[in-house]
Structure formats: C-alpha cells, structure tokens
Design a protein that fits this description.
single chain, 323 residues, alpha/beta, Rossmann fold, seven-stranded parallel beta sheet, two-stranded parallel ribbon, 16% strand, binds nicotinamide-adenine-dinucleotide
C-alpha cells in the first residue's frame, strides 16, 4: 500500500486531499501545527473527520522543527510527500513577515532535506498564483516570467519553486510545484473572500470590496484542485511546475451577486481602494496541466458557491459560530 505524508493536513486543501486519498485506501500520515492563524477548532474538526479512517494517522508537528520531522519520517517512511503546510495569505504577510520565512522557507528546506536523505520517490508542493505578481498578460502561463513578486508570501512561494529545482537538479529528487488559483469550497478558509462575505452578509454587516469592485479572480473549486494534486502524485515528474486554476476569470462582483442570490439577502457593500500586495486579476492558462496531469476542472462558481453555502449552514448551527 502506498504511504503518503501530507503536511498541512488540518488545513483546507490538506483535509480534502487526505480524505480523497484515504477513501482510496492510501496510507496517509497527516501533519500540521494547527496554529491559530484562523479558528483552530475548524482545523481540529477537519482532523476528527479524517480520524474516522483507520488508514489515516495524525501528528501535530511544526515544519520548522527538524528533529520532530525526522522522527515522523522514521516512523512512517513515506514513499511520497505532499507539502501543503505553509503560512498562507497575502495580506497577513505585510504585518507578519517572519512567520513566512520560518514556515515557508526553513520549513520547506527541512522537508526537502528529509526527502533527499530518505530517498522519497516524489515531493509535490503548493505554490501559488501570487507568483505572477502584477503580470499584465493573461491568462498566466507557466512559461511567463515570474520574477516580480509583490508580497513576501509570493516571494516565499517563488523561492520554494527555485529550492525544489535545485534539489531535483542536484539530488535527482522528483518535485512538482502546483500554483493554486483562489481555492474555495466546503470546509474553506475563514480568511478568504467567500467565507468572509457569507459570514458578514448573514450577520447583516457590511462587506469590504477592494479596488472598488474592479477585481477578477480565477476561482477554483477544491475537488478540482484535489484531482490536479492526485494527477501530480501519480505522474511523479522529475521537475515540473503546473497551474491549477479553473481557467475562467470571474468578476468579483458577479461572485458577490451569486452569494446574495443563494442567501436571498442583499449585501451592504463598502468599496475600498486596492490593498497592498494584492493583484487586480488572476487567470490560469491550464493547457500544460491538462496535457501532462489530465487536469480538467468541472465545477463552475455557481455550483461551487452552492456547495460551500450548504456546508457553511450545516456546520455553523446551534452553539457553533464562525470566528
Ligand atoms: N487556498 C488557496 O486559495 C491557495 C492558493 C494558493 C496557494 N495555496 C497554498 O496551498 C497550501 C494549502 O492552503 P490552504 O488554503 O489549505 O491553507 P490552510 O491555512 O487552511 O492550510 C495550511 C495549514 O498549514 C498549517 N501550517 C502552517 N505553518 C505550519 C508549520 N510551520 N508546520 C506545520 N503546519 C503548518 C496550518 O496550521 C494550516 O492548517 C498552502 O501552502 C497555501 O499557501 C492556497
């Protein structure tokens, strides 16, 4: 049976990936620091769901702690590693730069070193569409230059791609970097637009819309992202980078109107200028990912938002409130 180590397993994407793997009988060791960047209870609830499977094991661990990671690699002897743990978020990197260096750079180096020394067959890791910075040419292609990051978060993800390239070149470690484009869906992140808009609209609070609403995003449903990650795990290329996006750039205001429609409530909107580090548009060219990973997203935002709202309203009932 294949043994896969997934870091960031208590996180949004990590939870969905682990669930898909364990349902297919893969032996998964999930690790996560379960920090309080957002509500840790939501992370523990995801872990509880996963613990229902006998082939899922969980370890609370910090990627920064090399000694602890070594012990985990000794115990589980993973054949492949999927690194999703990171300090996420563009805006938070403006106020909390150091945590990005500790988790995203030193933590990632610890993973690379262990994969190299333990002869792991392949490392798949999360990068981000934010590496495209304020590139004007759309859709964003993996062939485009990406040397103008506009946030420390983006810089840390670009650095990961370069570090992985070195380890593939020097030590023959198979590495695949995946540039995710605005992922959303059930069990999603409370710091992201869909969650925040839903919470505020339901509470009758105004929502903040940046760049006066002139924002476009390639919103990608989490099940499609999982399909792309699984393609990367199976293909295990020597050294690759792929875009995982829905290949549609949606107007943010259309996204807001869909949420309003499903909730049957009108949002009170506060239009604000652009935020530092943010980009006005994202749009993925996925031709390379379709050809080499078989990546074919199938969920549009209309269906995806509905799935999210169904989860949100069933999860936040009674005593449990979004924080
Ligand atoms: N969700 C998106 O739209 C999106 C877009 C682009 C890239 N990404 C990347 O995808 C990955 C997963 O994102 P997500 O949306 O699931 O975020 P998430 O915050 O829900 O999950 C990340 C998890 O990593 C854990 N973590 C953070 N630092 C750690 C450390 N030092 N050691 C161990 N665990 C640590 C956190 O506790 C969290 O549970 C991240 O690398 C993120 O940067 C996400």
């Amino acid at each position: 049976m294949t043994r896969i180590l997934v870091t960031g397993a208590a996180g949004f994407i990590g939870y969905h990936l682990c669930r898909s793997l364990v349902e297919d009988g893969v032996e998964v060791c999930g690790i996560d620091i379960v920090n309080d960047y957002y509500d840790p209870q939501l992370k523990w609830d995801r872990v509880e769901q996963l613990k229902q499977y006998d082939n899922f094991h969980f370890e609370k661990a910090d990627l920064y702690n090399k000694g602890h990671l070594e012990k985990i690699f000794n115990t589980y002897e993973p054949q492949k590693v999927v690194n999703l743990a990171a300090q996420a978020g563009v805006r938070y990197s403006v106020t909390h730069p150091h945590v990005y260096m500790d988790s995203n750079l030193v933590g990632f180096l610890n993973i690379l070193e262990l994969c190299r020394h333990r002869k792991v067959e392949g490392l798949i890791y999360a990068s981000s569409s934010s590496v495209y910075g304020s590139n004007k040419k759309v859709p964003f292609s993996v062939e485009d230059r990406v040397d103008n990051p506009i946030s420390l978060y983006a810089a840390s993800k670009k650095a990961n791609e370069m570090m992985a390239h070195c380890y593939s070149h020097l030590y023959g470690l198979n590495t695949t970097g995946l540039r995710f484009f605005t992922v959303y869906g059930p069990w999603g992140r409370p710091d992201m637009a869909l969650f925040i808009f839903t919470r505020k609209i339901l509470a009758g609070e105004p929502i903040q819309v940046f760049n006066h609403g002139k924002m476009k995003r390639d919103f990608t449903y989490v099940a499609d992202i999982v399909q792309g990650i699984r393609g990367a795990i199976d293909n295990n290329y020597p050294c690759e980078i792929f875009n995982l996006g829905n290949h549609r750039s949606e107007q943010l205001m259309d996204f807001v109107h869909l949420i309003e429609g499903y909730l049957d409530r009108k949002a009170e909107i506060e239009f604000l200028p652009m935020q530092p580090g943010d980009v006005p548009e994202s749009f993925a060219d996925i031709q390379h990912s379709t050809e080499k990973l078989g990546f074919l997203p199938t969920t549009n935002i209309d269906q995806g938002i509905k799935h999210f709202l169904d989860w949100y309203t069933s999860y936040y009932t009674g005593e449990r409130k979004p924080v």
